[in-house]
Amino acid sequence: MRYLILGGGPAGIAAAKTLRKARPDDEIAIATEEAEAPYLRPLLPDLILGDADAEALLDPQGKDLEEKRIRRFRGRAATRLHAEDKKVEFADGAAERYDLLLIATGGKPEVPPALKKDLPMIRTFDSWKDSLAIKELAQRPGAAVVYGPGFLAIEACRALRNAKREVTWIQPDLPRIGYPIAGELEASILDDVRNRGARIQDGDDIVEVRGKDAGSCVILTRRGLEIPCSLLVVATERIPSVAFLAGSGVAVGTGIRVDEFLRTSVPDVYAAGDCAEFQDKAKGALRINFGWRSAVRQGQLAGENMAGGKKRFSGNEEDYFWALFGSPLLDRVKK
Ligand SMILES: Cc1cc2nc3c(=O)[nH]c(=O)nc-3n(C[C@H](O)[C@H](O)[C@H](O)COP(=O)(O)OP(=O)(O)OC[C@H]3O[C@@H](n4cnc5c(N)ncnc54)[C@H](O)[C@@H]3O)c2cc1C
């Protein structure tokens, strides 16, 4: 039996390790787009702040994959799923066969058209590579602008506070996919972000970014502000990375539709983590259970079910946001 897992984040790794326990002799492979060793994405702000180094960033879950005979193909992005042939194609021209497939490709930041410019000071805030670039650019003179609706923008403001004296957070709207910070908690967090020196432009948006010279640009907002800066951090929502499923028959809404066993609409194909969307029966709505711990739990559950189990995903709201990896957001911004 050959198990193939797409995505080497917490969901993919948890699934691989669970499968290995249940299936000591089967073949298990992870193919993932990023080239780095598995790392703790929630610590990226600390990497920029200088509070965590490369060693601290490594995900302990991912340290013994080789020992457990779990193959890991790095730098391999899936471009197409041929479900009828049980085969996945990759950007490097390779193809991998599977008996059972798990899609755990997480999300990628949504970049609005006005920000899709080939300027070196525009950086998404999503990966280890992004964070090293942000850290380097943050050391340069000039102001910073953070763009995004919610949690990741708050984290980006926090990450920049040691290096940048002037930070403007442009908060265009509320996030589309759930924003559980509300009421007093939200007011407190925003106060702390302001007290740390960030100016918040809520309800505004970026309409244009103009390159000024090699190291800076000017941001024009809908309300008519012109903000010169040497760094623009795009900290937008992570939208499920599912484009490669077009034409595969796997049903996709915002994320990959899964049932309570984390099975997709196509036989022998499962999905888990930030890319999976399920029916929250209690609320009668579709939801993605974002977050590190939720991804690990979903990965474990998918692994058990792929090995023949029949475990149901409860999709508890507590597994979402409130069970975020790391300290509570309010404590982080106050620190
Ligand atoms: C800056 C930042 C801070 C965060 N802070 C927190 C926090 O404090 N607490 C918390 O709980 N959560 C936090 N999160 C969210 C958390 O990291 C995610 O919820 C979690 O990583 C989701 O895990 P996953 O395995 O589903 O997907 P991911 O971790 O996104 O991993 C998916 C992997 O799949 C790869 N991939 C994508 N597309 C393809 C493809 N086509 N082919 C092959 N591989 C592909 C990606 O490169 C990636 O390596 C943060 C996220 C970011 C970006």
Q: What would you say this structure looks like, in words?
A:
The chain is an alpha/beta fold and 335 residues long. The protein folds into two domains: 2-108 and 239-323, 3-Layer(bba) Sandwich (FAD/NAD(P)-binding domain), CATH 3.50.50; 111-236, FAD/NAD(P)-binding domain (3-Layer(bba) Sandwich). The protein has eight helices and 21 strands. It has helices at 10-22, 44-49, 54-57, 128-138, 151-160, 183-195, 292-306, 329-334; strands at 2-6, 27-31, 70-73, 78-82, 87-90, 95-97, 100-103, 107-109, 122-124, 144-147, 167-171, 198-202, 206-213, 216-221, 226-229, 231-234, 238-240, 256-258, 269-271, 276-280, 285-287. α1 (10-22) runs parallel beside α7. The protein is globular. Flavin-adenine dinucleotide is lined by residues 6-12, 31-34, 41-42, 44, 77-78, 104-107, 125-126, 152, 155, 241, 244, 273-274, 290-293, 295, 324-326. Flavin-adenine dinucleotide binds at residues 6-12, 31-34, 41-42, 44, 77-78, 104-107, 125-126, 152, 155, 241, 244, 273-274, 290-293, 295, 324-326.
Number of helices: 8
Low-confidence stretches: none
CATH superfamily of the largest domain: FAD/NAD(P)-binding domain
* Sequence of strands across the biggest β-sheet: 3-2-1-7-19
Strand tally: 21
The kinds of small molecule bound in this structure are: flavin-adenine dinucleotide
Instruction: Please report the first level of CATH classification, the CATH class of the largest domain.
Output: Alpha Beta
Task: Label this structure with key terms.
FAD/NAD(P)-binding domain; 5-stranded parallel sheet; binds flavin-adenine dinucleotide
